[in-house]
Amino acid sequence: MKIREFIPLMEELAPLSYAEDFDNVGLLVGSYEQEISGVLVCHDALEEVVDEAIEKHCNLIVCFHPILFSGLKKITGKNYVERAVIKAIKNDIAIFAIHTALDNHQEGVNKIFCDTLGISNPKILIPKANYIQKLVTYVPVKDVESVRESLFKAGAGAIGNYDNCSFMSKGQGTFKGNEKSNPVIGQQNVEERVEEVKLEVTFEKHLQASILKSLFASHPYEEVAYEVYQLENKLQNVGMGMIGELDVAMDEVAFLQMVKDKTQTGGIRHSAFLGKPIKRVAVLGGSGAFAIQSALAQKADAYITADLKYHEFYQAENQIVLADIGHFESERYIKNYIVEYLKKKMTTFAVILSNVNTNPVNYL
């Protein structure tokens, strides 16, 4: 398998278009035409991980965090990023990052976080904006069902727990083809009036190419009239963080002790206890200060995340327990999840879980 054939498998795990605009995901180092000999999955593609890939005969590293996050003007080996990239290039090792694409997936980082803590019925904390589009097209009455089914097969018409969603309204379409036209209905240079159905379906932005391909393939007209709109609706099953409930409410201290044990963190920094049980819990793996207000608005009793600064703990406002468990710890199980997924998808070469601990934070 070549890397260009491998990438669609990662897109099945989490479409790269789910990633945040600031992120750097996908193939960061290497050639799309490179044949894969083995895959090493890690949290951070540091130089030690590249050494491990060399030792274990893996020429593709799949990492959660992108080793290349911002642009490099020089590659001289002066820092850990440059050294890792240089070693990877010298040894023909490709690096692929998935990061916030998997953060935002409903079965990704935060679902794993919820499962680890025993949080039931989790829902997205901050649904993704500017990601739903609408296709409007006009189809002869006799062809509307075949066009509709084709669009559904391409992924259109899915809304939350429902699929095959569309809206249809009848009307009359008019057109007149010139001398270069080859009309399916009517003749050149004659205005035609046809009973048509206005067909409307929504879809996720990353599906646009396949949706339009299906439209053109299934529509009977030589020239297909259609419009694509960006909607302001938020995508409820994709986005940052999750919120759900514990099966049984817990004392604040007992709850944080459970979190500490489950995430294997060396310590938890938290805001003041409020003297009330913890039942409704919000989580966000990685740096999550930006979601404090969302957790408050959705009446969470506790919000578990990482990288909170001193003044951000004040935002608890005696309404919620904020807990910083550590960045690595809040995401620690994601590489296991990627390995399990890839082993199910690929059997022609090894998929190996990295043994290198890339957590830069230590606890006394």
UniProtKB/TrEMBL annotation:
GO function term, MF aspect, one: metal ion binding
Protein name: GTP cyclohydrolase 1 type 2 homolog
A Pfam family annotated for this UniProt entry: DUF34_NIF3
Organism placement in taxonomy: Bacteria, Pseudomonadati, Bacteroidota, Flavobacteriia, Flavobacteriales
One term under GO cellular component: cytoplasm
Binding site for a divalent metal cation: 65, 103, 327, 331
This protein's record includes keyword Protein transport: no
Record flagged with keyword Ligase: no
Subunit structure: Homohexamer.
Family from the record: Belongs to the GTP cyclohydrolase I type 2/NIF3 family.
Keyword vocabulary terms for this entry: Metal-binding
Organism: Myroides albus
